[in-house]
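User: My collaborator sent over this chain with a note saying "see what the structure looks like." That's all I know about it. Can you take a look?
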Amino acid sequence: MILLPIVATGQDVVTVAVASNFSMAIDEIAAEFTASTGQQVRVTTASTGKLHAQIVNAAPFDVLLAADGARPENLESSGEGVLGTRFTYAIGELVLWSRQLTDCRAALDSPGKARIAIANPEIAPYGAAAREFLQQAGLWESLKSQLVIGESISQTLQFVASGNAQLGFIARSQLQAPSLPDATCTWTVPAGLHTPIEQQAILLRHGQDMDGARRFLQFLRSDASRVIIERHGYRLPELSE
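Assistant: Without extra context I'll predict from the sequence alone. Here is the result:
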């Protein structure tokens, strides 16, 4: 794919709202896009639910990169997202991580007094996936009193990395964080035990007349972006999606 350079002004900066789990990958992708096109990108990261609420309340974002498909679909239905521009750009994986325990999965069955970090299931798709897994495993009710709730998956990682929680459900992509302490155990939650974490992108109404925003979404599907996405711990969707 060849993207010709364009001249960008302050008004032409592409504003991208990005789910916090994707923060490291988006930094690389945005840099590659700017190097290829000259188009500047401004990124805002937060939980998908928080970003969705901001968009509904007229936040001036051009593109949303969510951690689920439900909220982009909702925006498409309401007219806040541009019909026909929604697609899956990455498939996330959920992992249990600890810097204190020796067997992450066994700790769920015999947690003792351990606190378990989880992103808020109401606004963070990785938190919703964690809750779904715990419910299927018959552990949700017994562990609820020991849960430490993060506003986003980034805050959830902070809880467990700092020792404020002994165990945490995080995104596999976060295992590459350069400041992450060494793990004592890591366990990948089987994908079949929760709804697939299909992370979708969509062009928003605010950016529908902006060539740079459309080009950014085109670049997100390029081979260059897919290499970055896979390297950051995500599975790749079929391009036909």
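A starting point for your reply to your collaborator: Strands lie at 14-19, 41-46, 63-65, 87-92, 94-98, 116-119, 147-150, 167-171, 185-188, 197-203.
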